[in-house]
């Protein structure tokens, strides 16, 4: 009877040793290709196109100081301090002193050229600079959560997660999800962030209004994050089974 309990205890303890710790294979980024990792195809970066409810800010400069003052009224250096204009449900935006302009579906560069052309019908030397005010993405789940700015045109998934404070050890790296708005509605992109092939794939770049979701590993309750925690787990397990064995011997 004693031997049977002892063998069972050793088996369970060995199982815990194998499964209770987070390891590099499960958590490391940019891993080289191996059988257990998916391999993603490369995809070209696609410029973000303006959508309904996007908010733009712009500045008009000209050698005429009075005209420049009118068009830049309420401006400022910081985008957040500038007056924004929302793209309406019909895809147009109502800018001051000129007729409505259809901007939905255009890239920011294309929209700037269209607006500048329209302003030059009023002021021949007008130069327009435009920016998207709502250049933000959201991170939720088992990660540092929050709403963060898309501070550069080609923001990568690694930079986005770094802004959020990176995934927790218990975060499921095999099933990262990105919720993205498209012309056909909201789509969900799911991928494993560990392989190096994520670079330049369709999952690599983050766009305005993206939502990144990281779920918690179902088995994370049983895992420990450090050797100290593992030693504590082993000690508790050994103590527990010793107690059972001593109690069994006393009963017998």
Number of strands: 10
CATH homologous superfamily designation of the largest domain = Outer membrane lipoprotein wza domain like
Overall structural domain count: 3
Known CATH architecture of the largest domain: Roll
Q: What Rg do the Cα atoms give?
A: 28 Å
Please write the string of helix (H) and strand (E) elements. HHEHEEEHEEEHEEEH
Low-confidence stretches: none
Instruction: Provide a count of the helices.
Output: 6
Q: Which strand order does the major sheet show?
A: 7-6-10-8-9
Description:
It is a single chain. This protein is an alpha+beta fold. The chain folds into three domains: 2-21 and 224-251, no CATH class; 27-47 and 135-220, Outer membrane lipoprotein wza domain like (Outer membrane lipoprotein wza fold like, Roll); 55-132, wza like domain (wza like fold). It is 29% helix and 19% strand. The chain contains six helices and ten strands. The strands form three sheets. The chain has a five-stranded mixed β-sheet, covered by helices on one side. It is elongated. It starts with a helix and ends with a helix. The model has no long low-confidence stretch (mean pLDDT 82).
Secondary structure topology:
Blueprint (H helix, E strand, L loop, with lengths): L1 H18 L4 H4 L27 E7 L3 H7 L13 E2 L5 E2 L7 E2 L5 H12 L7 E6 L3 E6 L4 E4 L7 H7 L12 E7 L2 E7 L19 E4 L12 H25 L1
Parallel strand pairs: 6-10
Antiparallel strand pairs: 1-2, 1-5, 3-4, 6-7, 8-9, 8-10
